[in-house]
Specification:
single chain, 126 residues, alpha+beta, 4 helices, 26% strand
Length: 126
C-alpha cells in the first residue's frame, strides 16, 4: 500500500493560560486520501492536578469526548453541523481560548491512519 499524507493536531490541556503550561491529552488525525478522521485521548489526572490542583478533570474528559464525537460527524445538542471531514478537522484544529486547545497542525505519511493515530497517542500523550 502506498503511504498517504495525513495532518494531525495534539490536544493540550491548558489549565492556567497565564502560566503557559500544558499537558498533552489527545490527538486528532485526518487523512483525506483514506477518508479518515479520528481522535483519541488519554487523561493523566495526576499530571493535570500537578499543574492545577482544583482542575475539573471530568470536564476535561467531557471536552475530549466532544472532540471525538465531532470527528464521527455527530451534530446537534450544541455540536457544530459540519458536513465533511475537512470542515470538521478545520474546526477541531482552530485555535481557541478554552482549557482544551489544539496545538499547531503537523503532517506525516502513513499506510494506516488508525494505527498512526494510536502511535501518535503513545508517542505524544501516554
Amino acid at each position: 500500500m502506498t503511504a498517504q499524507t495525513y495532518q494531525y493536531v495534539v490536544l493540550r490541556c491548558v489549565p492556567r493560560a497565564e502560566r503557559e503550561e500544558f499537558v498533552n491529552v489527545g490527538v486528532v488525525l485526518r487523512c483525506q486520501a483514506a477518508d479518515y478522521l479520528g481522535a483519541g485521548f488519554d487523561v493523566d489526572a495526576s499530571r493535570l492536578r500537578a499543574l492545577a490542583p482544583d482542575l475539573d478533570v471530568e470536564a476535561v474528559r467531557a471536552s475530549l469526548r466532544t472532540f471525538c464525537e465531532i470527528t464521527q460527524g455527530r451534530s446537534g445538542g450544541g455540536l457544530p453541523d459540519l458536513p465533511d471531514d475537512g470542515r470538521r478537522f478545520g474546526w477541531l484544529s482552530a485555535p481557541r481560548s478554552t482549557v482544551v486547545r489544539p496545538g499547531p497542525v503537523h503532517t506525516g505519511l502513513t499506510t494506516d491512519p488508525a494505527a498512526e493515530l494510536e502511535r501518535l497517542l503513545d508517542r505524544l500523550v501516554r
